[in-house]
Amino acid sequence: MELDKELIQLRIDIIERNLEEIKKIVDEGYEKFKGSFRDELASKHALLESIEACIDITNHIIATKGFRRPQDYKDVFVILEENKILERNLSEKLQEMAKFRNLLVHRYAETEKEKLFKIMKMDVDDIRDFIGRILRYIAK
Predict the structure, then answer these.
(1) What integer pLDDT is reported at residue 108 of this predicted model?
(2) Reported pTM
(3) Alpha-carbon distance 63 to 12, whole Å?
(4) CB contact set of 15 (below 8 Å; sequence gap of 6+)
(5) What class does CATH assign to 5-139?
(6) In whole angstroms, how far apart are CA 140 and each of 37, 110, 133, 135?
(7) C-alpha distances out from residue 114 to 29, 38, 82, 84, Å
(8) What percent of the chain has pLDDT over 90?
(9) Domain boundaries, the chain
(10) What is the pLDDT of residues 33-77, one digit of tens each?
(11) How far is 123 from 137, CA to CA, in rounded Å?
């Protein structure tokens, strides 16, 4: 089975659109963010959708290439690391994102605004790195 590059690109488009919105919110600063329930909701949704799209891309690669079956969302990134598609450092950061995804989905009331903003400001570059790595991989 061959990789569906169009499916992967559609997911990347979703991620890039979301990351652009996250950047706008971050650029407006934490003071505005902490006072805006709308920005908080938009941020959570954009992050969740971006992480889900990364997982979708990863699952597609795993299934298409016949790699071992993942145990959980974190494991999808471990599998890409095992198969030399992701470097360990990036894999570990994305595993943390997968854990944060679970927090957003299952314990959303516990998500602290300050932590959410920090992730948006500091950690979304890991998602950009993931996109770059995947684009290089599918170009081979």
Answers:
(1) 62
(2) 0.93
(3) 18
(4) 49, 50, 53, 54, 127, 131
(5) mainly alpha
(6) 43, 42, 11, 9
(7) 11, 15, 34, 34
(8) 86
(9) 5-139
(10) 999 999 999 999 999 999 999 999 999 999 999 999 999 999 999
(11) 22
Name the pLDDT band for 105 (thresholds 50, 70, 90).
confident
At 24, list the tokens: 């706008």
Can you read off the two tokens belonging to residue 40?
């908080």
Beta strand ranges found along the chain (DSSP E):
none
Q: Which residue has the tokens 């979304």?
A: 124
Count CB-CB contacts under 10 A for residue 65.
14
Residue 55, classified by CB atoms within 10 Å of its CB into exposed (0-12), middle (13-18) or buried (19+), is buried
Distance, CA of 51 to CA of 27 (rounded, Å): 21
Which string of DSSP letters, residue by residue, matches 60-71?
HHHHHHTPPPPS
Half-sphere exposure of 88 (CA within 13 A, CB side): 0
> What's at 17, amino acid-wise?
R
